[in-house]
Amino acid sequence: MSKLVLYLLLLGNILLLSGGQIVWKHALSNMTGGLTIANLLTSPGVYIGGFMYVIATGLWFVILNNMKLSVAYPLQSFAYVIGIFSAWLVFGESIPATRWIGGAVILIGVFLISWKA
């Protein structure tokens, strides 16, 4: 499997993991009647987010089988940066400067890990 395909699979994995969290947050935020088992079992968002995680896990198995763990696993931390950005963009959360700086540090780490990997 080519390096490009592996990195695209990893990107898909990261986007599915991040997207699943966004879907879950949205579903839970809009849940009426509180967080109950019945509400969870009848929420389409819970199932959609779970399905995204199942697909992400399938991709992860392919990635682990073809890429060094010391490269693949740390690169997943890019999901944290997507989480910060999504919290701000989708949910209107106020993000302090220190969190943005932390996200930038993660991006630098992702770059260093993937450089000549």
From TrEMBL:
Keywords: Cell inner membrane, Cell membrane, Lipid A biosynthesis, Lipid biosynthesis, Lipid metabolism, Lipopolysaccharide biosynthesis, Membrane, Transmembrane, Transmembrane helix. PANTHER family: 4-AMINO-4-DEOXY-L-ARABINOSE-PHOSPHOUNDECAPRENOL FLIPPASE SUBUNIT ARNF-RELATED, SMR FAMILY PROTON-DEPENDENT DRUG EFFLUX TRANSPORTER SUGE. It holds the Pfam family EamA. It is a multi-pass membrane protein. The chain crosses the membrane at residues 44-64, 71-91, 97-115. Its main location: membrane. It comes from Tumebacillus flagellatus. This is Membrane protein. Residues 6-114 form the EamA domain. The keyword Chloroplast does not apply.
